Amino acid sequence: MTSTPESNTKPLKGIRGEALTFVADPFLEKGKKCHRYWKDALIVMQDGHIVDVGDYAEVAPRHPGLTDIDTYTDALIMPGFIDCHVHYVQVSMIGSFGDTLLDWLDTYTFPTEAQFADKDFADENARVFFRQILSQGTTTANVFATTFETSVDAFFEESERYDTRMISGKVLQDRNLPDSLKDPSPEESVALAEKLLRKWHGRGRQMYAVIPRFAPTCSDRQLRLAGELYRKYIDRGVYMHTHLDEAPGEIEWVRMLFPDCKTYTDVYRQFGLVDRRSVMAHCCIVKEEEWQTLHDCGCGVAHCPSSNLFLGGGQFRYWEAKQRTRPCRVGMGTDVGGGTNFSIPRQLGEAYKVAMLQQKSIDAERCFYLATRGGAEALHLEDTIGTLAPGFEADIAVLDLKPTEYAGWRLGFSKSIFDKLFVLQTLGATSLVKATYVAGKKVFDIDRAEKFRYAADL
Ligand code: GUN
Ligand code: ZN
Q1: C-alpha span between 121 and 93 (Å, rounded)
Q2: Which of 335, 336, 340 has most ligand 1 atoms within 8 Å of CB, for mutation?
Q3: Which of 16, 90, 257, 440 is deepest in the core (most CB within 10 A)?
Q4: Which residues contact ligand 1 via a Cβ below 6 A?
Q5: pLDDT value of position 30
Q6: What is the third-level CATH fold of 81-378?
Q7: Tens of pLDDT along 224-245?
Q8: What is the chain's Cα-based Rg?
């Protein structure tokens, strides 16, 4: 796997060790090899991109000038993880005692998010969020900010410091929530969203999403204007991101608020919000016609199992989402603070259990696909991130195959790399990630005195 000869003079950097990446969807390509695995790989990076990958013995001679190589043993090099749905504004409220989703929103979430009018508070939360996700190997996330301009600026400013590829935007919400968090009017809220979109979308690696929180907290007029904004910018790569079909009480509320719509998906569709760059979080209790729409429109779906378990929402049915006749683009989401931690591998452990509760299972090959290339597909970034191959952005996670004394010993009994990954996702060690590279720079290193570093300081 090599690319065109190095055409610029920027320095080369290498990462060497055992490595794994996906090249196709194992839910759909039965029997075909959907991954590439190297016992001793060399990944060559230049100017933020991967320029060569393969067996060390083959790749190294092609780059005689390459001397700067980080070598890892007892480790597995993978594409950085992709979190397709998370609320950075909820980092201070993980583990808030819940009853139902709607009670939890009223009691904890809305008051927490109301504090983001304060830029210093937003800055602090953004700082914490990035340190947490980078220490878990997540390099791209599709992120809810909240109502306020401050919440969006704080997020993207911190992302720029790390040079991460991130998607975020102002949350649109103008009804059924406290005045302190409510948008003043549909027109003003969407005008602010457009202002922020023009400021941040395409600036470095930052990307913007139009984010109506969910149908119950948006007026018809706000949803209509949000749809217009989305369609105005969709060809420039702007996203739409919202919640869909998460919990029974929520779905019942939507039915009462929009009695003329046949399904929850139809509510968004009638306002022009269901299209090829729409990402829908949860999709647990989904009717067949909704899956068909999500497939037909090319929407992304974020599976958020730890949140669904914590908030007692629905149970995601991956075999429906991935049905061969109309497969959807699916990735994983932590949904922090409904989700209980920042680790995508730990979400995989929960995804397995959610499937088992429904008498299905999901193996580690399909799980780690969802965590990387699947996530990139859900975000329509499968040509940019989520795969170790020439031309892709060099966002990389290095997993520790001995993250704890017990895990190291236990893995000695596992044969294949997927056996090992299944054990690791099940054990869910918090110290699973040794190092995280963003655009070729090691922004997190568990063994470095200063664990986190901004891109400009590297
Ligand atoms: N639905 C609307 N808002 C939220 C939220 O903040 N978290 C979750 N899990 N579901 C939601
Ligand atoms: Zn959410």
Answers
A1: 14
A2: 335
A3: 440
A4: 87, 101, 105, 109, 213-214, 243, 246, 307, 311, 335, 338
A5: 79
A6: TIM Barrel (3.20.20)
A7: 999 999 999 999 999 999 999 9
A8: 21
